[in-house]
Amino acid sequence: MTPTTAPWLLRTDEPRPQPRVPSDVEYHRVFAGEHRRIGRGLLAIALVFVGLVGIARLFLMAAAAVDENLLGRTGFTPLQQAAGALALAALIPYSMLVQRLLYGVPGRSLHSVSARFRYGVFARSLLAFGPLVVVLISLMFLAPGDPVEWSTADLVGIFLTTVLLTPLQAAGEEYGVRGLMFRVVGGWTRHPRSGAALGIIVTTVLFSLLHGTLDPYLLSSYVLLFSVLAYVTWRTGGLEVAVVLHTVYNATALLLATTMHVDLGGALGTRAEASGSLMTLVPGAGLVVVAAVVGWMTRTSGPARTPRAERAERAERVATDGREADRRALMPEPSRG
Predict the structure, then answer these.
(1) Which of 34, 54, 112, 273 ranks highest by number of CB atoms within 10 Å?
(2) CB-CB contact of 114 with 13 (8 Å)
C-alpha cells in the first residue's frame, strides 16, 4: 500500500491548520486585539506562577515522602531532581490548557507560529548553537570548588534524570514563560515591536526574580539568559531555539557539577545566599552573540508570522485531503466475486 502521509520521522515543518488563531501576526501577538484584556492577562500570569510553584511543591513533597519513608533518605537525591524536572515539564500541557480556557486559542499554537513543534528548527539550532553553549558553561567550572562525596548510585541517577528529563524541564519553563506569559504581555500594546519589548522585559524581570537571588552577578546572568530566550522566541516565531539553549545550558551545568562532585543540594538550597563572579557572566555574554546571530539571520524576513489566510486555508485543505486519503486506504476493497 502506498503511504499517503509522511511518517513522524520524515515530516516537514509545514504549518498546520490554526482555527481561532489570527493570520499573519508575530508569535507574541496572537492574543492582541481591539481590547487589551489586561485583567485576563494578569489572571493568566498568576496561573503561570501558580503552576511553576504549586506543581513543583506537590511533586517535591511526594518525592520527599518516598525518600524518607521508603528509602530512608533526606536532602537532595536523584528522586528529588526527577520530581522537580517532571513538575516543570507539566507546565507544557498546563500552559496550553490555560491558553485554551482564557483565550480560546488551541494549545498547539503555543509551539510556534506553525502550530507545531518545528523539529527542523530545533535540530538546526542544536547543531549551530549547542556546542557554543557547552563551551561557555564549561568555562564557569574552571574555578576551583570544594567537592563532596557522591555514591555511585546517586551519580548514575543524576546522570539519567539530567539526560532524560532536563529537556522536558527546560521546555516546560519555556512554554509557561516565553510562551504563554510572553504572549499575554506582548498583546497589551498597540504595536508589535513595543509588545515584543514589553514582553521581553516583563518576562525576564519576573522570572529572574523568581530564582531568588539579588547577587548582582547571578541576577545579571539570569537577566542575560532569559532576555536572550525571549528575544529568539520573538524572532523565530516559536519556542524551539529557546528550548535548545535552555536545555543545553541546564544539562551541561548539571553534568559538569556531578562530574566534579559539586554539592548540588547545597547550591540549590542556598541560592539566596550564593554569590557569583565575573565568570558567572560568561555564558550570558556568549548567548548575546547567539541572539545577534538570530537577529542577523532574520533581518530581511523579520520575525516569523502565522500563515496568511490563503495559506492557512490551503493547509486546511491539504490536511483534510490527507485524512480522507488515509481513511479510504484503510477501507477494505469491495469483493469482486
Answers:
(1) 112
(2) yes
**What is this structure's pTM?**
0.87
d(CA 8, CA 15): 15
Give the pLDDT of residue 181: 97
Residue keyed to cell 501577538: 29
Give the pLDDT means over successive 10-residue stretches in the chain (337 positions).
Answer: 62 81 94 88 95 93 92 86 95 97 94 94 96 94 79 92 96 96 95 96 94 87 95 97 97 91 67 74 93 96 86 53 52 53
Total residues found in the chain within this entry: 337
Q: Which amino acid is at 186?
A: G
**Please, are residues 300 and 181 in contact by the beta-carbon 8 Å criterion?**
no
Nearest to 123 by CA among 3, 281, 250, 9: 9
Whether 240 contacts 120, CB under 8 Å: no
